[in-house]
Amino acid sequence: MRSHILGRIDLDETLLSRDLEYLASLPRGEEGYDEFSNGYWKNLPLWNSTGDAGDDLYRDTDLAAQLTEHGKHCSYLRELVESTFNTDHIKMVRTRNLVDAVVIPHRDFVELDRDADQYFRVLIFLEENPAALHSNDDTVINMRPGEIWFLDAGSVHAAANFSPNSRQMLCVDFAFDGAYEEKDIFRDASRYQPSTDARIIERPALPADRLDAIKGLGQVVDRSNFKEFLFLLSKVHFSYDVPAEETYGWLADIAASSGDELLVEKAGELREYAIGARALSERFTVNSWG
Amino acid sequence: MRSHILGRIDLDETLLSRDLEYLASLPRGEEGYDEFSNGYWKNLPLWNSTGDAGDDLYRDTDLAAQLTEHGKHCSYLRELVESTFNTDHIKMVRTRNLVDAVVIPHRDFVELDRDADQYFRVLIFLEENPAALHSNDDTVINMRPGEIWFLDAGSVHAAANFSPNSRQMLCVDFAFDGAYEEKDIFRDASRYQPSTDARIIERPALPADRLDAIKGLGQVVDRSNFKEFLFLLSKVHFSYDVPAEETYGWLADIAASSGDELLVEKAGELREYAIGARALSERFTVNSWG
Predict the structure, then answer these.
(1) Where are the domains of chain B?
(2) Segment A202-229, tens digit of pLDDT
C-alpha cells in the first residue's frame, strides 16, 4: 500500500506557534537511531508506552499510550490529536524535526511482533518547507502543512531536509489487532477524506555519466569515509528517478571496487539491517571495523 | 608555534569515572558551531564568562571565569584544574566529546580582539582512544590520557574520531595581556615539563591515483551533497601526509569542475570563514544556496 493523503487539518498558526517554540527550546535527546542520520534530528515523544519524555523507542504494546511531559506542555497539539484521531489505537505520538540532514533508506516495524500491515503511521507537517522531502516506493513527496499522510513505513522509505530550516512534523503511530480500515484512525469517520492531490517531486532519470561517476567512487571510499558515502548515496534518489534501495546496491559496488573486504561485509550488513530484518533494539554501528 | 606537550597529569580513574558518568548523562546542548562537525559533538562548559552552563561561546573578557553548574558537579575535574593551573588566566574550561565525527580544518580566535598568540589553549584527553586524532600544521597526533597539550588553535587544525567510542577531553582556554611564558599557565611552575614524546601518527604520501580520484569527485558533487564532500575531504589529511588546508583547495577544484557557480562561491566563502577571518558569532551555513 502506497503512502497517500488521508485527510487534512486546518492548523491554527497562532496556537501552533506556542507549541513549536516550546519544542524548539528543548535539548535534543540522545537519539535511539541517529546512527542513520547526519545533521540535526530531534524526536520528542508527546505520548508513548511509558509516559517518560526521555523514552523514544517504539514498542509493541497492548496498553494505551501515555501522555508525556512534552505532551502536557503542547496543549494545541494535544487537542489536535485528541479531537482528530481515535486515540484507542494510538501507540505513540512524536514530533520529529530533521534539519540539513538525511535519514537513510530503511524499513520500520520489521523488529516488532505483528505483521507490518497492523502498524499504521501517520505524518503531519506542521511547517511549510519545500526542501523537506520523504520518499516511499517510487515516489518523492513534499508534504504540505496540515496534510494527514499515511506513510508506508514498512516498505523502504527515506527522508531528507536539504535546507538549514526547521521541518517540524507530527508522527502518530497506530497499531491494530486484526482487520481495520483507514477511516478507523479517525475519531469521526467523516474526517477520512483521501486525496491524490499531493505535491509529488518530478525527478529526471539518472544520467548514465552520473551513474558511472557514482560507481567510480570505489576509488576514494575507505573505512574513514564510508559513512559519508552512505549519506551521499542515500540522497541520490531524491534528485533522480531511481529506487531508494539502489543506495545499497551502489554501496556494495563501491565497497567491492575498493578492494577492502571489511567494506564489502559492512555494506552487506547495513543493507540487511536497514531494509532486511533486525531485532528490537538491535544496534548497528557503521564505523566499527573488524 | 607548534602544538606540543607541556606536562602530564596522573589521572585518578576512580574519581574521574564519576565525573565522566555525570557528563555522559547530560543532554547535548545546541552547539554554537556544530555546522562544522558531523556525527556527535558535545561541549559542556565547566567554567565560562557567565557561569551559565548553557553558554558555550568563547568570549574575550577580562573577568575571571565563573564556575558553572557542570563545574560544580565535576568535583574531580574541578580539583584537577584548580590544583594544576593558574586559574587567574583561565577564561573557559570545557569538556568536549567527539564521537564518530570530524571537525573540519579551521582556525580559532580570529574573531577575537587580541593577537592570536595571547590566547593559549590546552587540551587533556581524559580517555584512551587510538582512533581520536588531532591535526595541526604538518602533524597528526593521538593524545594520551593525562598529557597536557598546547594546541595551536590559531593555526589551521582539525579533529576526528574514527570510532564510535567516547573521547572525552578537557579543553582549558587561557588568555594573557602582553608577554607570558608557557610555564605561567601552571599554579606551580615545576609542573611545566615539556616533552616531545608524543604519539605522532605516521602518514604515507597521498598516492597520485587517489589524488586524481579526489579531483574527479566534481562529477558527482552537487548542492545536495556538498556537505558530505566537505567532511569527506576534511578527513583525507588524517590518513595521508598532506596539509589540512588542502581540504579547501580540493573543494574549490571539485566545485569548479561541477560547473555550478554557487558551489564555487560556497567553497570560497567556506575557506574564508574557516581558515580566513570571521566576525564573532558570525554564522555560516553550508547548505543554503543563492
Answers:
(1) 4-191, 208-276
(2) 999 999 999 999 999 999 999 999 999 9
Q: Which residues of B touch A229 (CB under 8 A)?
A: 228, 232
B287–A contact, CB cutoff 8 A: yes
Interface check B150 vs A, CB under 8 A: no
- Which range is most confident: A92-96, B26-30, B117-121? A92-96
Q: Which residues of B touch A37 (CB under 8 A)?
A: none
Q: Give the span between the Cα atoms of A235 and A158, in whole angstroms.
A: 9
Sign of CA pseudo-dihedral B136, B273, B154, B86: negative
In CATH terms, A4-191 corresponds, of 3.30.450.40, 3.60.20.40, 2.60.120.20, 2.60.120.330, to 2.60.120.330
pLDDT at B282: 61
What does each C-alpha distance from B137 to A15, B195, B238, B270 come to in angstroms? 53, 18, 12, 19
Q: Which residue has the higher pLDDT, A286 or B1?
A: A286
Q: Could you confirm whether domain B208-276 is CATH 1.10.1720.10? A: yes
| Closest CB to A288 among B164, B222, B231 | B164
Complex prediction ipTM: 0.74
Residues of A in contact with B253 (CB under 8 A): none
Q: Note which residues in 61-90 of chain A have CB less than 8 A from chain B.
A: none
pLDDT mean over B111-138: 88
Q: Does B202 touch chain A (CB under 8 A)?
A: no
Kindly list the distances between the CA atom of residue A98 and the CA atoms of A129, B62, B127, in Å, as whole numbers in the listed order. Answer: 11, 39, 32
- Residues of chain A with Cβ-Cβ distance to B220 below 8 Å are 210, 213-214, 217, 232
Residues of chain A found within 8 Å of residue B219, distances taken between Cβ atoms: 209-210, 213, 216
Poorest-pLDDT segment among B29-38, B218-227, B230-239: B29-38
Q: Are A137 and A155 in contact (CB under 8 A)?
A: yes
pTM: 0.83
Beta-carbon contacts of residue B254 (< 8 Å; ≥ 6 apart): B214, B215, B217, B218, B221, B229
C-alpha A140/C-alpha A20 separation (Å) is: 26
Q: How far is A121 from chain B (nearest CA, A)?
A: 27
What distance in Å separates the CA atoms of residue B257 and residue B276, rounded to the nearest whole number?
Answer: 23
Nearest-Cα residue of chain B relative to residue A35: B39
Residue of A nearest to B41 (CA): A39
Instruction: Round the average pLDDT of chain A to a whole number and report it.
Output: 90
pLDDT in tens, B16-38: 999 999 999 887 665 544 567 77
Tell if the CB–CB gap between B220 and A217 is shorter than 8 Å: yes
* HSE value, Cβ hemisphere, 13 Å, CA-based, for B84: 22
pLDDT tens digits along B174-190: 999 899 999 999 999 99
Statement: residue B281 has pLDDT above 60:
no
